[in-house]
Amino acid sequence: MVHATVTGVILGLLAPARRLVSDERLYAILDQVVAHPARYNGSGDTKDRQTLQMAEIAACETHSPVERLEIALHPRFGFIIMPLFAFANAGMPLSFGNFGHFVTRVVLVGFTVGKPIGILTFSWLAVRSGIAMRPPDLDWRLLAGGGLLAGIGFTMALFIANLALDQSLVDSAKLGLLLTSVVSVVAGIALLSGLSGYGQLSHMALQ
User: Fold this and answer.
1) Number of neighbours of residue 144 by Cβ within 10 angstroms
2) pTM listed for this prediction
3) CA 13 to chain centre
4) What's the structural domain count of the chain?
5) Is the pLDDT of residue 131 over 50?
6) How far apart are CA 141 and CA 126, in angstroms?
7) How many angstroms separate the CA atoms of 167 and 161, rounded?
8) Where on the phi/psi map is residue 130: left (φ > 0), alpha (ψ -120 to 50), or beta?
9) Do residues 78 and 153 lie in contact, with contact meaning Cβ atoms separated by under 8 Å?
10) What pLDDT, on a 0 to 100 scale, did the predictor assign at position 44?
């Protein structure tokens, strides 16, 4: 039996990540669109209508299948599936004794400190080695803010905690993950809100 989380990861990896229509191809198709088509009151299959249909399909295909799936599933996943998963799987007795447990502290530090440092370090190494190129409008502070937000972990973190830890330690790990999500959200938004262009970034994220 394959776990549902693993199945989702496999299906995600199988989705094509390349666009079927490049920007150059899209512009070439759009150049064929007639700005003011000839007057025609009928509903026949005219050349102008065929060109518009082709332009519509091409504009859609400029997004890769992975991007289209992400755009289509994000509202349902972010506002329905994810909260339901959290409430269903994070059931834990809140005990003040768990706040000082070493597992809680390790999870909290690992996600809120280790993950942003890892993202920044490997991004810097990738840029310095020439493996990757940093876009001019992607400031390192924006990347640091994204690294902080990446510390929000629940789905895979809970899955791994249940597999790797003894049942007596799982509640402490869950508490650490809950604290991690709160700290990462507050720290990430606090950093990003102070940067110029955060409004545009937020607008793009909401879209």
Assistant:
1) 20
2) 0.52
3) 14
4) 1
5) yes
6) 17
7) 9
8) left
9) no
10) 59
Q: Residue 207: what pLDDT?
A: 44
User: The domain containing residue 160 runs over which residues?
Assistant: 95-207
Q: What is the CA radius of gyration of the chain?
A: 23
Separation of alpha carbons 176 and 112, rounded Å: 10
Rounded Cα distance between 199 and 207, Å, is: 12
205 within some domain: yes
Indicate whether 63 belongs to any domain.
no
Q: Which amino acid is at 121?
A: T
Terminal CA-CA length for the chain: 37
Of the CA atoms within 13 Å of residue 38, those in its CB half-sphere come to: 5
Domain contains 134: yes
CB-count burial class (<10 Å; 0-12, 13-18, 19+) for 53: exposed
Q: Is residue 20 domain-resident?
A: no
Taking only the tens place, the pLDDT of each residue in 16-47 is 777 777 777 777 777 766 555 555 555 556 66
CB 48 within 8 A of CB 37: yes
